[in-house]
Design a protein that fits this description.
This protein is of the alpha+beta class. 21% of the residues lie in helices and 26% in strands.
Length: 167
């Protein structure tokens, strides 16, 4: 039971993702309602069968502090679609992280200054600015929101999540 379930607040906004077993307990304890279930997916006990949740909605509104996406190597690779932003190389074994503005020139380790680069492009750029070396970025690096990350970059969930990930 490794499937993931989208958790919606009482106002139908996506607030988190949890395991199917946790979602089932919330529904069973009437703290959440089942919004969507996995087609042909069931949780079985000795005597009963329950639909496998895909999307649940909490019965009470929960005030959630702003949640961002954790800055990590894997999350940056996901944002940049596992390819070098300079040349388009897709070999995961050759991917590294590049500081657009080198740290030696005051560049920070942040979502807006890190991109995925292959070893060759990263070595070519070295400790220089993009302008000095004649390289360009196809887009400005950005920090994804939690919902954007779920919708566009993570490969979890299913089609039933899409209506709730539009805002």
């Amino acid at each position: 039971m490794k499937s993931k379930v989208l958790v919606l607040n009482a106002d139908y906004r996506a607030i988190s993702v949890c395991s199917a077993s946790k979602a089932f307990v919330l529904v069973y304890m009437q703290k959440a309602e089942l919004v969507s279930s996995v087609k042909d997916g069931f949780l079985r006990t000795v005597s009963r069968s329950f639909p496998m949740p895909s999307v649940i909605r909490l019965m009470r509104y929960v005030k959630v502090p702003y949640r961002g996406v954790v800055l990590s190597r894997q999350n940056l690779f996901k944002r940049d679609n596992y390819q070098c932003v300079y040349c388009g190389e897709r070999n995961k074994a050759l991917l590294t992280l590049d500081h657009v503005i080198p740290r030696s020139q005051g560049g920070k380790t942040s979502w807006t200054n890190l991109v995925t680069a292959c070893q060759r492009c990263n070595s070519h750029k070295g400790n220089y600015s993009l302008e000095k070396i004649g390289m360009n970025l196809p887009y400005e690096p950005f920090k994804p929101t939690f919902v954007m990350f779920l919708r566009d970059f993570s490969r979890i969930g299913d089609d039933s999540w899409q209506p709730y990930l539009l805002h």
